[in-house]
Amino acid sequence: MSHDEDGSAEHDWLTIIAVQYFQTVPLRSFDWPQNILHKLDVSTQDAILRETVQSELGKSYPPEASYSLRFLKAILEKVDATGEEHSEALLQAYLELLSNASGDKLTGDLSRACYKSYPLPTKTSSTVYLTLHEEPLKISQGTTGLCTWEAALRFAEYLLNAAPEVIQGRRILELGAGAGLLGLVCLYMGASSVELTDVDEGVLERLKENVDLNSQMIIDRMARDFGGHQSNPPNIRVSKLDWESVDFDDIASRNAEIIVCADVVYDPILIPPLTSVLGSLLRTPHHGHPTGFREGWVALTMRQEQTYKEFLSALTRNRIRYERIRLDRVPRLFYHEDNVGEVALLHLTVADS
Ligand SMILES: C[S@@+](CC[C@H](N)C(=O)[O-])C[C@H]1O[C@@H](n2cnc3c(N)ncnc32)[C@H](O)[C@@H]1O
């Protein structure tokens, strides 16, 4: 999405709408800029359409079709409420989506891709998005890894807004990477390398797809902000790492300084293998670090107090020290669903003992 050089007010409200549309913010929570609600004339409707459904991003990597349909319907209803004329283009886009949706229902083809695009901070005046192919449901195809979870969003916000030095120039290993938001944000922030790992074959495939989807944007960013060479592929790889069947030589050989993970503490059964892998990874020497070992970060959504306590006890049993980092003052960049629970961010270290 491009902006006028002067970042005019018109572009501000268009950006507010587009950023929400691409993250598929539920329409009940959508923040419509007040000034447009009074001025939804044809040119305003056309401008919204151009910045969302018919933008390059919207055409190449659209949100779920039923979401776009509801988005356009909401605008049409708002137009009705103001007594303005409908834009021909908007109406036509709506009817096209409607006919595609009923065609899909008739043929039973409900497999249309669904993308979410997350706005990232940038030094330029245009909005840069991280685009992920995700599934609309939290559990899909037998895994939780095909969508982005709350803890990944809060952790990414912490890194981007409050602690870039944790990531910049460092080699990162992510456990249970899911759709890939956290690791890709690390690469965008200037990590020297990122290894995204998961157990599920479908998730690993999706991770590769999401890495490819964002590589060019990240190369461009590196070239612009860090003077890198545009042709260099980003230093990122996707590999399998199952906490439940671990080869400890393989763990030690993983070339990382910082271990990160988000929303991987959701099932108590996973706590012993996860904390054991964390302990092994963290105890691998890293001579550049003050403790002489690697460091780790875990972001977890506190759904059940008991699971959280069990996780802390398991860290202690594995001789992993943790410090909870406050997130309440970290500004938000992304949309967050209501009532998903508080996110705790833990900084993990080990000592030689
Ligand atoms: C709730 S998802 C979180 C995904 C991502 N980190 C996020 O926050 O959006 C949990 C992830 O952990 C992965 N996972 C579950 N058990 C695992 C195991 N034994 N080894 C490695 N990854 C595992 C799942 O495949 C899934 O991708």
Automatic annotation (TrEMBL):
Which keywords has UniProt assigned to this entry? Answer: Transferase
Q: Which residues form a coiled coil?
A: none
UniProt xrefs under SUPFAM superfamilies: S-adenosyl-L-methionine-dependent methyltransferases
Q: What GO MF terms are annotated? A: transferase activity
Task: Please give the Pfam families that the UniProt record associates with this protein.
Answer: FAM86, Methyltransf_16
Q: Does the keyword Mitochondrion apply?
A: no
Annotated FAM86 N-terminal domain ranges read: 17-96
Q: Sorted alphabetically, which InterPro entries does this protein's record hold?
A: FAM86_N, Methyltransf_16, SAM-dependent_MTases_sf
Q: Which family does it belong to?
A: Belongs to the class I-like SAM-binding methyltransferase superfamily. EEF2KMT family.
Q: What's the name of the protein?
A: FAM86 N-terminal domain-containing protein
Species of origin: Spizellomyces punctatus (strain DAOM BR117)
